[in-house]
Amino acid sequence: MVEQRIKLNRIDWFVLVLCVAFIISLYVRFWKADESAQQVEILVQGEKQYILDLKQDRKITVQGKQGESLIEIKDGKARFISSSCNTSFCVRNGWQQHGGDFVACLPNAVSLHLAGGSKLYDAINF
Amino acid sequence: MLLQITPAREDIIIARFAALAIGIHVLESLLPSPIPGIKPGFANIITLLVFMLYGVSTATWVSILRVVVGSLIVGTFLSPTFVLSFSGALASLLALYVLDRFNQKLDGESLSILSIAIVMAIAHMATQFLVVYVFFIPHNAMLDLLPVMMTAALIFGTINGLITHNVYNRIARK
After folding, report:
1. Do B162 and A6 touch (CB under 8 A)?
2. pLDDT in tens, B40-94
3. What's the mean pLDDT in A25-33?
């Protein structure tokens, strides 16, 4: 069976190159490395207790609803080392480093919010 | 009193091609998709074919009928799925209309159906993404998906454009 092959002219090529360039620009715009967060806010029972610089390495113990939570800040990242809860979901969440990242220990009512960087937003809406 | 409606030739053409497009639309809705929102959109081949054979207004009718009746059959009429389908269809028809006008302005050379298919697919996907982002999931993480979605639109637009080209050639030779 003889199929007539599609013929592309100059305008076609122009449009196709434009489309591909547009998509490549999307990758560049949205897939570039995330900017790291600058600060971490530590909330206890919904209230801001600490705002700490992520550049300063330190360990901090926070008194929560049930007991103490140990939080570590190192190399621009923050994590729960331990917390007074049974599930330890907060500890297993590991290091957080991007603006807008969030980790919480619900039983102990302690949470970390990372702020700064390009991906900061005020609220998440589902 | 007996009311008799005589369908015009164009009505019959629209109905037949819309039926074909609806069939493809319904079959395609049964296919599982690896990523939500990515679909081949083979029903658009019929829209493109009708555009090549009869022009942009007939293609508009076929496309709109396909979306409305297709959603009634699948059971998504007026649901978010329908809103997405409808807005995407409108955007791609707008792109088709603009490109058709553009082609008429040009002398001699004109955009091939491949380019038209790709631009329509991209317009369709971009509009759907905008609607999702503004109305359904206004979350920044959605933006990470945008390049993937647009790449899918480019690939499926190319496939659909080539299929339309081949089908048109076979019809035109008869």
Report:
1. yes
2. 889 999 999 999 999 999 999 999 999 999 999 999 999 988 999 999 999 999 9
3. 82
CA distances from B77 to B24, B34, B66, B85 (A): 17, 23, 12, 10
CATH of span B9-173: 1.10.1760.20
| CB pair distance less than 8 Å for A10 and B110 | no
Cβ-defined contact of B140 to A8 (cutoff 8 Å): no
CB contact under 8 A, A31 and B147: yes
pLDDT at A102: 84
**Of the given ranges (A76-80, B1-5, B123-127), which has the lowest mean pLDDT?**
B1-5
Measured between beta carbons, which residues in chain B are less than 8 angstroms from residue A15? 111, 115, 118-119
Domain encompassing residue A77:
39-115
> Exposed/middle/buried for A29, CB within 10 Å: 0-12, 13-18, 19+?
exposed
Instruction: Take residue B1 and report the two structure tokens written for it.
Output: 């009193």
Pairs across A and B, CB distance < 8 A: 62
With a threshold of 0.90, tell me whether the complex ipTM lies above it: no
Asked whether residue A6 is domain-assigned, the answer is no
Q: How many distinct structural domains can be found in chain A? A: 1
The neighbour count for residue B80, using CB atoms within 10 Å, is 12
